[in-house]
Specification:
The chain is of the alpha/beta class. It contains 12 helices and 12 strands. The protein has helices at residues 3-6, 78-91, 106-109, 112-118, 128-135, 137-162, 173-192, 260-272, 290-312, 316-322, 326-332, 337-367, and strands at residues 34-40, 43-48, 60-64, 69-72, 96-100, 123-127, 203-205, 208-213, 216-222, 232-236, 241-249, 277-282. The protein has a 7-stranded mixed β-sheet. Strand 11 (241-249), helix 8 (260-272) and strand 12 form a beta-alpha-beta unit. Helix 2 crosses helix 4, helix 6 (137-162) crosses helix 7 and helix 8 runs antiparallel to helix 9 (290-312). The longest helix has 31 residues, at 337-367. It is globular and about 60 Å long.
């Protein structure tokens, strides 16, 4: 998603929020929009407190090793990353030596520059497809974000001024907070854009890369296509802690340009790790796989109905009308007006489109004659 798409992406859905795993977090310091959550054995999650909205910062995993630190993901802005770096320095005086980017989206990588400035010699690690995404997709996406940002800002400022919900009716406190947060992040992003220095990984891998830092083993794995073509997860086998990147986002998954069918298998492989603690790309720390299974049910429901629509010969427009996500909307969004809006924008539109395209491609491939031998 980019800011140009924000206004067009607002599609309304009705539904009910299920309970999701929570964690006990240390209280935030004044002015810091995140909690530092100790996970044990010198491992910490930095969990964002901003509401899920159209512009967000990523969660971080901080792994303190014998002589240095490994961090998972940065943030949407250098200012936000600088705040996280200050929190890391309160935890330990050791330098950050490695930063793993789980994928190429700006909310996980644009803070890299702040880390390079703060820790000379730091190395960035990512899947090979993420490096390719940073060199190509991210460049075009950033152009569109910068072009669309002024219109998006005007739209959300007008929404706040008029006091009207994007779903109709009065603007509630939850939705107001989300649009205020969106505006603040986008404004900071624009302020930093002229001096932005996008970073690309110095270390890449295809299937798995293992870091051994003193007594600590850190496995960086690719589990298959999911939110992007190069989603990496970071797994601590001894501690049974995993950082999932945007393979897992709560309370509403991000499905923009995702790989709907393959994503289900990637989540199977993530669940097979049987981690005791999961730090999602966005959302609270989790201690079981209930939410992962819920996301799999959502993706499976969309994929099955898309297959049926293609088998009937439906057009994409007809498929969008026919695919019924009422039960899934009930499971994810609840009575929250904000979450209804986000479910429509983050799931109903993009996931249905992608699943339809995947089903069409499979049907076309199946119809091709077998090659002669």
């Amino acid at each position: 998603m980019n800011f140009r798409d924000v206004v067009a992406a607002v599609v309304i859905a009705t539904t009910a929020l299920t309970p999701r795993a929570q964690s006990v977090a240390a209280p935030p310091r004044a002015g810091e929009p995140f909690h530092v959550v100790p996970l044990g054995d010198s491992v910490y999650a930095i969990i964002r407190d901003e509401p899920l909205a159209f512009a967000v910062h990523a969660n971080n995993l901080v792994i303190v090793c014998d002589s240095d630190v490994v961090v998972v993901d940065s943030d949407f802005t250098r200012a936000a990353a600088t705040e996280v770096i200050a929190a890391i320095r309160r935890i330990t005086p050791k330098p950050v030596r490695y930063l793993v980017n789980t994928h190429w989206h700006d909310d996980h990588v644009m803070g890299n520059q702040a880390y390079e400035d703060a820790f000379p010699g730091i190395q960035f690690i990512a899947h090979a497809a993420t490096k390719d995404g940073l060199l190509h997709d991210a460049v075009e996406n950033r152009k569109q974000q910068l072009a669309g940002a002024p219109q998006a800002l005007e739209y959300f400022r007008n929404t706040l001024r008029d006091g009207k919900s994007l779903a109709g009716g009065a603007l509630g406190a939850e939705e107001r907070a989300a649009w205020e947060s969106t505006i603040a992040i986008v404004e900071q992003y624009l302020r930093e854009a002229p001096t932005a220095r996008p970073m690309v990984p110095s270390i890449t891998f295809d299937d798995q890369f293992t870091l051994r830092r003193g007594s600590r083993t850190i496995e960086i794995r690719f589990l298959g296509l999911g939110n992007t073509k190069g989603d990496a997860i970071v797994y601590l086998p001894k501690e049974r802690i995993v950082a999932s990147g945007d393979l897992v986002v709560a309370p509403i998954p991000f499905t923009f340009n995702a790989n709907i069918g393959p994503w289900i298998g990637a989540l199977d492989r993530l669940r097979a790790l049987q981690a005791m603690t999961l730090v999602p790309g966005h959302g609270p720390v989790m201690h079981d796989d209930a939410y992962l299974r819920q996301v799999q049910r959502l993706l499976g429901t969309i994929a099955k109905q898309a297959d049926d629509a293609v088998a009937r010969g439906d057009s994409l427009a007809a498929a969008r009308k026919a695919i019924d996500l009422t039960e899934m909307r009930q499971a994810f969004a609840g009575e929250s007006q904000l979450l209804r809006i986000l479910f429509g924008s983050f799931v109903s539109g993009p996931a249905v489109t992608q699943a339809f395209n995947e089903a069409t491609a499979r049907r076309s491939a199946a119809a091709r004659p077998a090659p002669r031998r």
